[in-house]
Amino acid sequence: MSSVTIENLTKRFGGTVAVNDLSLYIADREFVVMVGPTGAGKTTTLRCVAGLEKPDNGTIRFGDEDMAGVSPAARDVAFVFQNYALYPRKTVFENVAFPLKPRGYTKVEIEVEVTRVTGMLRIDNLLDRLPSQLSGGEQQRVALGRAMVRTPRVFLMDEPLTNLDFQLRAQMRSELKRIQRELNITFFYVTNDQVEALSMGDRIAVLNEGRLQQVGTQDEVYDKPANLFVASFIGSTRMNFFKCAYNADKGTLFSAEDGWSLQATEEMRAGVQASSDPGNLILGIRPEDVQISSQAGDGNLEGQVYVVEPLGDRNIYDVTVGPNLLKIKTPATLVLDPGVQVSIRFDMSRAHLFDGVTEQALT
Amino acid sequence: MAEIRIQDLTKVFPNGTVAVRDLSLDVADGELLVLLGPSGCGKTTTLRCVAGLETQTSGDIWIGDRIVNNLPPGERDIAFVFQFYALYPHLSAYDNIAFPLRATRVPKAEVDKRVRAIAETLRISHILRKRPQRLPSGEQQRVALGRAIIRRPQAFLMDEPLTNLDAALRVDMRVELKHLQHELGTTMLYVTHDQTEAMTMGNRIAVMNRGVLQQVGTPLEVYERPNTLFVAGFVGDPPMNLIPVELAGDGLRSDDGQQITLDAATADLIKAQQTGRELVLGIRAEDIRLTGSGNGGDLRAEIATRESLGDQTLYSVALNGQFVQVTTAPTVRFEPGEAVELHFDRSRIRVFDAATEQALV
């Protein structure tokens, strides 16, 4: 078990900077998820930690120990990939036991370890099966078992759930989280799925174009996104954004083009002072922080229902407001038909204001 | 546009596999019906039989008032869309959308009218003269959608057309396609394995498994009142919680002996229909309320994990060797290991027969 410190990591491939001056501390026994779109540099970061890539710059330490020059095998990490290569002609038991034999475990010790790990993963009833006789989720658990069986210092995982169907993925999310707690080992997990990041990580590191955008708990990255990228990337239904400007006399945010004006909160008024250009701002609001009503004049904006998307427990309303399409989450009980005129109210205390030039958060 | 009627359709492949078994299904004129199921359930085979790309072993397919069993695909007057193909880069958005009509010699004035109408519906009137590569990807996709749907066949058949798009674009296109279908009153049979796509897009959803139709209904009917264990476990994110129980007095008893009371009428209804002792209680994650101990809940259990989803929190609760999912507002806060009680909303409980897998109440 070990903490992981990444300091000023830079990695280039030819002229492309894959990871740009990245620093991140992962505490001992912490579950950190690095999330970002394809090509953000997540996998490269992970491979540098594993020792599979050599950094151009920066240091990686496990505890106090500098990993420069330490071979991947000597780092004592377990690496689980998206494509879990199991040995097709070995049983589940033999696959899981595989890393133990060369490490000099006795037969009894192997038996004990495999039983412990497969029990935890709930595949102890499948020990005699071959991989071809297992479902995708079961195969993934065998791959995890093989990685877990020897208690590495750090667990590294590269999108291990990507190839599973969505029902299994949801199930494995909570399983992995439970397993990490039981194993009490440091997990560094990489994914492009923000749901996985929010749901599993003790902390989340958001990466884009090789640069770290924000590190924080779920609540921090969801409720206090540091910039426009994080705001738009995190959240299962994307945040709504509106270009606007600030009117200092009235204390309002407005869009002359779209014809609306909203009272700014005190926090926003303070934030505007630090902006590059009060005429170039972006207002962001999450779909669940907008209310919709069929009563005219009930809100501060008028719109028209474009599409209704039922999710079962809630509905998403897509509403046109001028040229913008706004997403609003409502209880499943609210029923409005496409084409209906609606009033919309923003919960401004939950809205976010961004600098239109730097794209950094102002609130 | 016209309705599609599938009557007693069976498709057996030469190797003996029964891909579709005795399936009957109507798609009403102007309806978007989603055929939903896991891979291998027979949904694409069904679609291909309607298109005429496969010949059914038995059963009839009607498009409008014609039986089309013996018509080749080209004479069925339907459009089959696999994906929204890349646009022609040297043509303007206008010419891209008009392309399928020009090939069929529709009069010029009519082409113009239809292109402008569809562009208006898709909110791309202002970019018709631009070339595709100058447009943001969302607008490019809307042009591609316009081109795919400008023809006026009797019906559209769509086979997972959004699968190859990235997640954000898929969500946007879902909205645009549904809007366009609604505005144009298009009859559409749409196949997907993605339950979110089915829920959000379909006027109705038909769920298939292993070649057999499980249930047809509006998204809310299928979500709230699944007819079979399969539908309960397949539709919804998270899927319905399914807890093994048996009838004991006027209530249900879980495997570890905890009792869930039911009203006498419900218990009688179960008694009258059940084929064996084993039952399954189905309840959605949002229909369970969590409290600390000593609050008279239905079941006592322990918090296993907490997953934040932003606007909701998803708890996994350990109950007798299985995990029950409960969603709460983000303000509800329990820690892993904490003892809790589960309170079930009685009006939202489903009970299934474990042997037949059919819903009893």
Shape of chain B: globular
Number of helical segments of chain A?
A: 9
Succession of helices and strands of chain B: EEEHEEEHHHEHEHEEHHEEEHEEEEEEE
Quick check: average pLDDT of chain A?
A: 92
Q: Which class do the helix and strand fractions of chain B yield?
A: alpha+beta
Label the overall shape of chain A: globular
- The rounded Rg of chain B comes to 25 Å
Task: List SSEs of chain A in N-to-C order.
Answer: EEEHEEEHHHEHEHEEHHEEEHEEEEEEE
What is Rg of chain A? 25 Å
How would you describe this protein?
The complex is a heterodimer of chains A (363) and B (361). Chain A is an alpha+beta fold and 363 residues long. Helix content of chain A is 24%, strand content 34%. Chain A contains 9 helices and 20 strands. Chain A has helices spanning 42-50, 92-97, 107-121, 136-148, 166-183, 194-200, 218-223, 228-233, 266-272; strands at residues 4-13, 16-26, 31-35, 57-62, 65-66, 77-80, 154-158, 186-191, 203-208, 211-216, 240-247, 252-255, 260-263, 281-285, 290-293, 301-310, 314-321, 324-331, 341-346, 352-355. Chain A has a 6-stranded mixed β-sheet, sandwiched between helices. Chain A has a 5-stranded antiparallel β-sheet with strand order 13-12-11-14-20. A 5-stranded antiparallel β-sheet of chain A has the order 15-19-16-17-18, with no helix packed on it. In chain A, helix 3 crosses helix 4. The two termini of chain A are 38 Å apart. By secondary structure, chain B is an alpha+beta fold. A 6-stranded mixed β-sheet of chain B has the order 6-7-8-3-9-10, sandwiched between helices. In chain B, strands 13-12-11-14-20 form a 5-stranded antiparallel β-sheet. A 5-stranded antiparallel β-sheet of chain B has the order 15-19-16-17-18, with no helix packed on it. In chain B, strand 1 and strand 2 form a beta hairpin. In chain B, helix 2 (93-102) runs parallel beside helix 4 (137-149) and helix 4 packs parallel to helix 5. The radius of gyration of chain B is 25 Å and the shape is globular. The two termini of chain B are 38 Å apart. Chains A and B meet through helix 5, helix 6, helix 7, strand 16 and strand 17 of A and helix 5, helix 6, helix 7, strand 16 and strand 18 of B.
